Amino acid sequence: MLESERHTGRIIFLGSVIESERSWKNSPMLFCTSFYDMSCPHLFTIVKFGVWTALKNDTRMAASLLRLHFHDCFVNGCDGSVLLDDTKLFKGEKNALPNRNSLRGFEVIDTIKADVERACPSTVSCADILTLAAREAVFQSGGPFWYVPLGRRDGLTASEKAANEQLPSPIEPLDGITAKFTSKGLDLKDVVVLSGGHTIGYAQCFTFKRRLFNFQGTGKPDPTLDSSLLSGLRTTCPNVDKSNTKLAPLDTATAYMFDNAYYNNLVSNSGLLESDQALMGDPVAASLVSSYSMYPYMFSQDFGASMVKMGSIGVLTGQVGEIRKKCGSVNS
């Protein structure tokens, strides 16, 4: 079954994405939604089932797959480098500070890749599988469907240093985060839209604990944080080191449902991360937050468009890179 025939009950048609798809289909770079229609016609079904199985076993995995894709694309492009294990030649991205003991879903991608290899050997890149898995994770969690341009090739190296430098931090000022997005060809609107991915998933206490007890060295909590949320979070994350790895939902309203509740939380000063609530401190970003809180369809439409933009960062096509046989290592 071709991708264009799927999900007829809840497709969100993205005009800008469809226009881009037409141009990609005619591109000599062969970066288009129909890239594997002939070479691996069952690809979408395999990825869909692999993600469904993963979410059945662990509902949190939807957010993990989305985050894994984001962390891949933001470090030297969407080339599957985040999936590579360390070698004698390079330190990979898995143990970079933003990823260590927090990035998940590698085994899900490995399982899907193995199934794809059985069906279509040496045909589909790990980078494309990860991109499709992220889309499926969102859609199967109640979020939008968008068409995914395909034809990425896998990179031959990875960089722990690049991951430490290029990935946004949850305690980074909005200007700094926006600068990192701009360096990837994205903009402030993409910051607001893609931050909406925090409508699913959890964060470890250490990523936001200073908001609860010692915000910016004041010895007091973040004054913008809703008082009832503050009380609950202090119970979950007491001010002791052993609570650092405990988890709290990024969206307390609907932690496993991909919807626009994240933006409602920001409007009511209930964003979990500093970087989330900081969106309300910028007039342009705050206006977008307000719109998405009121118009879920607008958020769904813009999220798909921004995911296509992000998924196009630094892609390798043609004969550049390779099609890995296993996602954790380059071909020998």
UniProtKB/TrEMBL annotation:
UniProt cross-references to InterPro entries, sorted A to Z: Haem_peroxidase, Haem_peroxidase_sf, Peroxidase_pln, Peroxidases_AS, Peroxidases_heam-ligand_BS, Secretory_peroxidase
EC assignment: 1.11.1.7
Pfam family, one: peroxidase
Cell location: Secreted
Cofactor(s) the protein needs: heme b; Ca(2+)
Binding note for cofactor: Binds 1 heme b (iron(II)-protoporphyrin IX) group per subunit. Binds 2 calcium ions per subunit.
Positions with a binding annotation for Ca(2+) 2: 199, 251, 254, 259
GO cellular component, one term: extracellular region
Enzyme class, first EC level, given as a word: oxidoreductase
Ranges of residues in domain Plant heme peroxidase family profile: 30-331
Principal cellular location given in the protein's record: secreted
Disulfide bridge partners, by residue number: 40-120, 73-78, 126-327, 205-237
Active-site residues, Swiss-Prot/TrEMBL: 71
Marked site (Transition state stabilizer) residue numbers: 67
Keywords associated with the record: Calcium, Disulfide bond, Glycoprotein, Heme, Hydrogen peroxide, Iron, Metal-binding, Oxidoreductase, Peroxidase, Secreted
Residues that, per the record, bind substrate: 168
Gene Ontology BP terms: hydrogen peroxide catabolic process; response to oxidative stress
Residue positions binding Ca(2+) 1: 72, 75, 77, 79, 81, 93
Catalysed reaction equations from the record: 2 a phenolic donor + H2O2 = 2 a phenolic radical donor + 2 H2O
Listed PANTHER family: PEROXIDASE 10 (PTHR31388:SF34), PEROXIDASE 72-RELATED (PTHR31388)
Function: Removal of H(2)O(2), oxidation of toxic reductants, biosynthesis and degradation of lignin, suberization, auxin catabolism, response to environmental stresses such as wounding, pathogen attack and oxidative stress.
Name used for this protein in its record: Peroxidase
Organism: Rhododendron simsii (Sims's rhododendron)
